[in-house]
C-alpha cells in the first residue's frame, strides 16, 4: 500500500517527529544537541519555518512548527538531516544513516490543540522519567516558553501570545497549564494525527483542512481500517 502523503498547509502548525534509525541514539554528547539546534535554526531561517516548541530526546526529536510554504518543512528537515549527519558521522567516526527515512508530521488546530501540543512536546522527558519537572531538562523550549529564557530558535505562536498581554503574565499562564495532566484522549489524538499524516483539531477545523487539501484528514481510530 502506498504511503499516505504528508499534509503541508502554509501557516498551519505541524507536530513533527523524527526518530533515530531503528530507535537508535542520535545525540551522543551535549555539543551534539547544540549542533542540531543550530542546524535547525539556520535551515528554518533559510526556508521559512518557525519553531514554536521543541524537545530533543536521546533518540528522537519533537517539533511544533509553522511553515511559510508547502515545501518549507521538507526542505528544512532535509537540510538539517544532511548537515547534522555529516558532522556527527565525521565527529564520532561513524558511517551510515542516523534517522529514519521519513519524518512524521500532522497538522495541529490552534483553537484547542495547539497549547496541548506545546505541553505534549515539553513533557516528553517527564513521561520518559528522565526528569521530574520539564524545567529540569535542558534540551527543550520549556525554559523559553515558561520563563522567558533566551532561545534564538523559538518563535512564539499567536495562540501562545494570546495567553496574556505581558511576557511575565503570559509565562505565568503558560506554567499554569502544566499543573493539570493532558487528557488521554488528547494525547492519543495528537499521536495518531502525527503518525497518520492527519489533523489534530476540532471537527470544524478538520473540515476546513479537508477542503483545502482535497482529502480526508481526520485520523483513524485504533483498529479502524484504512480508507481505500
Automatic annotation (TrEMBL):
Pfam family of the protein (one): Y1_Tnp
GO molecular function: DNA binding; transposase activity
Entry superkingdom: Bacteria
Residue ranges annotated for the Transposase IS200-like domain, each copy included: 9-124
UniProt xrefs under SMART domains: Y1_Tnp (SM01321)
InterPro entries: Transposase_17 (IPR002686), Transposase_17_sf (IPR036515)
GO biological process, one term: DNA transposition
Protein name as annotated: Transposase
Amino acid at each position: 500500500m502506498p504511503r499516505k502523503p504528508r499534509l503541508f498547509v502554509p501557516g498551519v502548525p505541524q507536530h513533527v517527529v523524527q526518530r533515530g534509525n531503528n530507535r537508535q541514539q542520535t545525540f551522543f554528547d551535549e555539543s551534539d544537541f547544540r549542533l542540531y539546534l543550530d542546524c535547525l535554526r539556520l535551515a528554518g531561517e533559510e526556508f521559512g519555518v518557525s519553531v514554536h516548541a521543541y524537545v530533543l530526546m536521546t533518540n528522537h526529536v519533537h517539533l511544533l512548527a509553522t511553515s511559510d510554504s508547502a515545501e518549507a518543512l521538507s526542505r528544512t528537515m532535509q537540510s538539517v538531516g544532511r548537515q547534522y549527519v555529516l558532522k556527527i558521522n565525521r565527529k564520532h567516526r561513524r558511517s551510515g544513516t542516523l534517522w529514519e527515512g521519513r519524518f512524521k508530521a500532522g497538522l495541529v488546530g490552534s483553537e484547542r490543540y495547539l497549547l496541548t501540543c506545546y505541553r505534549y512536546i515539553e513533557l516528553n522527558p517527564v513521561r520518559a522519567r528522565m526528569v521530574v519537572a520539564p524545567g529540569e531538562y535542558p534540551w527543550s523550549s520549556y525554559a523559553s516558553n515558561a520563563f522567558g529564557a533566551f532561545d534564538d530558535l523559538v518563535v512564539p505562536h499567536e495562540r501562545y501570545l494570546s495567553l496574556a498581554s505581558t511576557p511575565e503574565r503570559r509565562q505565568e499562564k503558560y506554567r499554569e497549564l502544566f499543573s493539570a495532566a493532558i487528557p488521554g484522549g488528547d494525547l492519543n489524538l495528537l499521536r495518531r494525527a502525527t503518525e497518520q499524516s492527519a489533523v489534530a483539531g476540532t471537527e470544524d477545523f478538520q473540515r476546513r483542512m479537508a477542503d483545502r487539501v482535497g482529502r480526508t484528514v481526520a485520523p483513524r481510530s485504533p483498529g479502524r481500517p484504512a480508507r481505500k
